[in-house]
Amino acid sequence: MKAAVYRQRGAAQDVLTVEDLPDPVAGPGEVRVRVHASGVNPTDWKSRSGDAPMTVEFQIPNQDGAGVIDAVGEGVDESRIGERVWLFHAAWNRVNGTAGEYTVIPSSQAVLLPVEITFNQGAGLAIPYITAYGCLYLDGPIAGRSILIAGGAGAVGHAAIELAKFAGAHVITTVSSPEKADLARAAGADVVVNYRDADAIDQIKSAAPNGVDRVVEVALGANLELDLAVLRPAGSIITYAAEPTGDPQLPVRRLMTENVTLHFILVYNFTQEQIDSAVTGVSAALAAGALTASPETHFTLDQIAEAHQAVEGGITGKVIVDIA
User: Fold this and answer.
1) Distance CA 109, CA 102 (A)
2) Which of 58, 190, 255, 301 meets the CB 3.0–4.6 Å disulfide criterion with 5?
């Protein structure tokens, strides 16, 4: 098979190549998937460019993807062969990510993809939607709650808006431009606020007079003052991303006085219960037609370095590598 690989960490253009590798074989409990589309996420380029030593001979990048199961390993029902599936955590502690013509993955990490959902949309599901679901439900049900989602035009923001609306929440989101505001409205946000507006806090307070119940946060340091200004007493902030500028300073006394719960989450360290709940919830919303694709930018496998650079550069929407 053809696959993108890196054998040392570094800049995309310096370490990513496309090579011919042996087709992988599904082991016990695994399925082999003919990959049609591979999704690129920030953790993909961060893993590739980090300074941790390589512990494997090579790494095929990219956690998310979609395709068709064409072989199963021992213990997996052969009826799964031919299933259209979306994939999650393909490269987490494994060498066979989705940036190749085939990947092998534990059967539970290959989730049925409805026939009406494209492989491209399927390749954009895993990290954004599992992360968003985990953030939204970390402190319990959200029906009837006011949820503030920072960065509503981003991949996780888009996912959080759709999942929150599907669950019956009142959704407020922040964006940085009119173009991103259009994307957030298209995803279903009830209220969209440009956080650069001088009266952004007043706009959010007007939309949630009693304060927002929960904040899904992408940039805690940059947004903490706004979050605390609009959060109700005993509300919660769930942050899922680290900022390149470093760790924020936390106003401990203020957080304590207002009984704020501050959660930090990393999708790769979700418990099995959290993963199962998220996959079930995302699948239900997908089957109900409640989820739509983010704007897509496509690259070929030979353009894998450019695909990683696009995500590293902060492109809006999803980056998809076309495999088949």
Assistant:
1) 15
2) 58
Q: Domains, the chain, ranges and CATH?
A: 2-124+293-322 (3.90.180.10), 128-268 (3.40.50.720)
- Hey, what amino acid is at 157? G
Give counts: helices (H), strands (E), the chain. 11, 15
The Cα 158–Cα 285 span in angstroms is 14
The residues near 52 (Cβ < 8 Å, ≥ 6 apart) are: 9
Extended strands (E) in the chain:
2-5, 17-20, 30-40, 64-72, 84-87, 102-106, 110-112, 146-150, 170-175, 191-194, 212-217, 231-239, 261-264, 296-300, 318-322
Q: What is the pLDDT of residues 76-86, one digit of tens each?
A: 999 999 999 99
Q: How many residues does the chain have?
A: 324
Tell me whether strands 261-264 and 231-239 are parallel, antiparallel or unpaired.
parallel
pTM: 0.96
Q: Residue 116 phi/psi, 5° resolution?
A: -80, -5
Query: Six-digit token pair at 178?
Result: 């009119």
Strand, coil or helix: what is 162? Answer: helix
Q: What is the pLDDT of residue 245?
A: 84
Rounded CA separation 72/53 (Å): 32
CA distances from 317 to 13, 171, 191, 219, 278 (A): 22, 20, 20, 17, 21
More confident residue, 245 or 63: 63
Tokens 């003919």 belong to 34
Q: Which amino acid is present at 124?
A: G
Q: Work out whether strand 30-40 and strand 64-72 pair parallel, antiparallel, or are unpaired.
A: antiparallel
User: What are the structure tokens assigned to 170, written together?
Assistant: 């009142």
